[in-house]
Amino acid sequence: MNAKSFNFDPEALGRKYQEERDKRVRVDGNDQYQEVTGEFAYFVEDPYINSELKREAIEEEVEVVIIGGGFGGMLAAARLREAGINDFRIIEKGGDFGGTWYWNRYPGASCDIESYVYFPLLENTGFVPKQKYTNAPETLEYCRVIAKKYALHDGALLQTLVTSTDWDESQGRWIVSTDRQDTLKARFVVHSNGPLNRPKLPAIKGISDFKGHTFHTSRWDYAYTGGDAYGGLTGLADKRVAVIGTGATAVQCVPHVGASAEHLYVFQRTPSSIDVRNNKPTDPNWMQEQAPGWHDERRRNFESIMVGGVVKEDLVSDGWTEAFRLLFGNLQDKAPSKARMALWALTSVASVERYKQGFKPYMTKKVTDYMDLAREMELADYQKMEGVRARADQVVEDEQTAEALKPYYRQFCKRPCFHDEYLPTFNLPNVSLVNTDGKGVDQITADGIIFNGKEYKVDCIIFATGFEVGTDYARRAGYQINGVAGQSISEKWADGLSTFHGMHTKGFPNAFFFGPAQSGFTATYTYSLDEQSVHLAHILTVAGEKGAKRIEASEIAEKAWVQTIIEKARLTADFQAKCTPGYYNNEGKGNAKPQNNMYGGGPIEFFGLMKKWRSKGDLKGLELS
Fold it and tell me: Which domains are delineated in the chain?
């Protein structure tokens, strides 16, 4: 790929990316967000329950407590049932199963991953999604399908918040306490709280002063807006509304708010990448014609393409895989699959030089050859993003607004968005983009929002500001975990994460942690959760066969895994350092603690390692007693 063949200047574009990144880096990092406690606690109340559940407090012993009723908790329970382990309780703070999809019911909420890949257990349930990309109502419906098939409501404690889990050495049990004064003694506890679980608010000066109406998108207030998940927000017809944030959530809800409000102001710090969605209905006969095992094959195919793996056919063929085919297309015959995985992270000569000086996981060619390949990938990324930026020019009529909506960063610095109505919304006469050019708003007043000396008076502020990522685990979970000798998980991980395979941590026996930390993270997060659930069921089954009552990571195994994570983190260090701030790179402070990363070799490699580990049957690295 020759830089001279493009209609843009790669060097100038690289400088532009760096300038846009630098203006957005803040010294306060994650501290720029306000915790939803105290006077802000109403932002996490449940607006979807019709009536509060009334029941007596429970005191009992149980083999397994699963904390969280999202896809992670449901899959854990489903795989345990399949393994013949039925003595478990699921504790969920919401009124029903669904997790992210229970809470996020904002108008337009939908999944950006193909439904035939995203929905787990499709071959088990026989469910047929209506469209290639499903929406929130159907996803919540599917959660109920899973819950019914695996009898998950039996014994589930809904509308119940865990307040602490404490290890009792003398009993060999976790004491799980809740806000309903329940006390459960569990041999094993599965922490499946979800990585995007706790809403975050920007710590904007005066955020407490606003006298109008406010809510977070994850707790959409339909009593105020009217309408439903499909739009029709008639309650906003005479309202001036502000949406703060332009990430994936805002991209989906802004078109509906803009179609209904008297006036909508969208406050933007960093624009999202908006590519074509092109949704289409499911052929009702298609899934019935698939051979057994098609679902896992399709998931693996999708994730393999996402890390540059060679596949015979792109089974999904969507915006995600198109982007990676473009990135890796010229490298199919020039670098082995694992080298392409490494090259995804290589964005500059400096990063190649660091490989040359130290860590060289996949260097099967001369360093200069890899520099050329890395440059080709960078140019392909530039080309793809030029197309995304050109789309803003083609769709948005006002030139200044179109320019402000153009993302200047590598495509996967932030989660890309695929949407066909977001950009046209800014052509409506009642919709205004307030571009803060990376700064964020200055202040919130009693009547509205101030930026650059101008006050925008509004009746309602909707915070589309996402969820806490990278903050203390217990803070995000909403409860503390106290292990052997009373050590808390916050204390254990104060200087960085320390786990074995991302699931176990020394000093916290019989505790299993679900999530991407020090584990394999996929764009199709349900795939990761399903793999973790299979892993959990295997460990409990084998431990049971061995008569083990206590399972704990060995110190040696944990230290070795942390070192693996640190080494693999180098694969993405330079890439993340050059990215615009966001939750992917810890608000621009990525790799300050490299042990806090996910497994840098990619999910398919990680899943393969875990499968090989399970096949040995000895649970090596875990101490059983």
Answer: 1-34+318-411 (no CATH), 59-100+134-198+470-624 (3.50.50.60), 201-272+414-463 (3.50.50.60)
